[in-house]
Amino acid sequence: MRAKTLAYISLFTALTVVGAYIKIPIPYIPFTLQIVPVYLAGALLGPRIGMLSQICYVTIGLIGVPVFAEGGGFGYIFKPTFGYLLGYIAGAALNGYLIQKLQLQKIFSIFLANAATLSVVYLFGCAWLYGSMKWIIEKPLSIQDTLFFGMILPIPGDLLLCVICSVLIYRLKPQIRRFILDSQAAQPTENKQKTNYL
């Protein structure tokens, strides 16, 4: 894996860490800015590298580095919020796939890809929240309460971030592509065909 690719992965892993520490405490699921790097990683880096940035983030947290919103360590898998972290991995891959495969360029179409990503994050998050509260913490939530705390409560802020990130992606993607193409032009001829960051 090229040094530049590793740098991209590290950058978006770090951005996810920063997003985890910017949070608003609400019951069960704190509202954070972690979803922002998920949108951006998938859209700007593509599905594979975007997903790797989130796998790296989750892996670092599970080995004990306190990068999650509520700490770190392998025991974090038993927390009600762990499903959202798995959702970030799937969401970054989905967002990159939709934007790259369908060649989405308009703000509204990018917003729809971001909304699909958010839906996947909620799917993983709510499923894990329900199971964790029922079988691990043994303080079960009803399906209605799970959806309320796991999706309905944070969704206004997440949708706002979804809109903001759609505009950011629209603005940044051409610049990122131009930067990468310029970098490719500076490489030796035999290496150009092997570089595919987006």
Structure notes:
The protein is mostly helical. Helix content is 71%, strand content 2%. It has helices at residues 3-21, 35-45, 47-62, 82-101, 107-136, 143-152, 155-185, 189-192; strands spanning 23-24, 31-32. The protein has a two-stranded antiparallel ribbon. β1 (23-24) and β2 (31-32) form a beta hairpin. α1 runs antiparallel to α2 (35-45), α2 (35-45) packs parallel to α7 and α5 packs across α6 (143-152). It starts with a helix and ends in a 6-residue tail after the last helix. Mean pLDDT is 90; it is low at 193-198.
Concise summary:
The chain has 198 residues and is an all-alpha fold. The protein has helices at 3-21, 35-45, 47-62, 82-101, 107-136, 143-152, 155-185, 189-192; strands spanning 23-24, 31-32.
End-to-end C-alpha gap: 14 Å
Major β-sheet profile: 2 strands, antiparallel
Going by helix content, strand content and strand pairing, the class is: mainly alpha
Number of helices: 8
Using DSSP, what is the number of strands? 2
Q: Tell me, what's the shape? A: globular
Relative helix content: over 70%
Strands of the widest sheet, in order across it, are 1-2
Question: What is the ordering of alpha helices and beta strands?
Answer: HEEHHHHHHH
Low-confidence stretches: 193-198
What percentage of the residues does DSSP assign to strands (E)? Answer: under 5%
Quaternary structure type: single chain
> Whole-number radius of gyration?
17 Å
- The whole-number mean of residue pLDDT values reads 90
